[in-house]
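Dear colleagues,

As part of the handover before I leave the project, I'm documenting each prediction I ran so the next person doesn't have to rerun anything. This entry is a single chain, and its sequence is reproduced below.
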Amino acid sequence: MTTASSADHPTRRDFLFVATGAAAAVGGAAALWPFISQMNPDASTIAAGAPIEVDLSPIAEGQDIKVFWRGKPIYISHRTKKQIDEARAVNVASLPDPQSDEARVKSGHEQWLVVIGICTHLGCIPIAHEGSYDGFFCPCHGSQYDSSGRIRQGPAPANLPVPPYQFVSDTKIQIG
């Protein structure tokens, strides 16, 4: 007569050993999860540096909108033919910060101007479609920018900066 050894058939003790080990592994992973998860950046941090997409189709000709990217106001202007012609007729050499209109817009999309809406003098927020040049006017100290965001008059030392952007389609841009 032969007797079966425990190596041939699993016993209740083997089952309890495996079940206890599995429960310990799951419990250990559950305990470590919050520590690992807290190392990920905060959602607001991710959003602050992430590129944004802006749909241009609802912006009428001659209208501006303001969006925020990385905590900065971004003006997106749908310029009229008159504004584009006036901006291109300016003698670039006469500007305090010489830059052509063509260098400030994307080729094939000249009607769209995208600039960071922070005055280069002391960081105020200029008002769109104000001032003598149908561009931007900073009411704090009187800086005036044209419809291409170039400084024309006042204490500001430089043009409104153009953020990094690209056209995703004819009616959508990605800033950042």
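The first helix runs from residue 12 to 37. The chain is about 25% helix and 25% strand.

All the best with the project,
I.
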